[in-house]
Amino acid sequence: MSDLERNKQVVVDYYQTAFDGDPEKAIADHFGPVYIQHNPDAQDGPEAFIGFVRWLRGEYPNLKLDIKRVIAEGDLVATHSHLDLEPGNPDNPGRALADFFRLKDGKVVEHWDVIQEVPKQSANDNGMF
């Protein structure tokens, strides 16, 4: 398996494990010695990540993360995902996420993201995903 494929698998497992409700396992399995966060609403480090996931799942206990695309280049992995906060609720169609992860030695060490609310109506018929 190439490093790019391995890095993609690491990110997908890390992200799914965390948002499926076990951020501690995601960190134990996939975090490097540091975790640099670029989202201005989040702090660096594993404790902040655990706190965020626990808070989000407390607000939206049935949330579902559906990773639609995974792209890797060098030490970076990008994901395009649908974070459905309330599956089945047409009044809350969730968020579209673009996440960028930097890995070092097969471990997640840095994160950037872009988050957009999924609109209830669109000016086109293409969909966001």
From TrEMBL:
SUPFAM superfamilies: NTF2-like. It comes from the Bacteria. GO terms for biological process: polyketide metabolic process. InterPro entries: Cyclase_SnoaL-like, NTF2-like_dom_sf. PANTHER family: ESTER CYCLASE, POLYKETIDE CYCLASE SNOAL-LIKE DOMAIN. This is Nuclear transport factor 2 family protein.
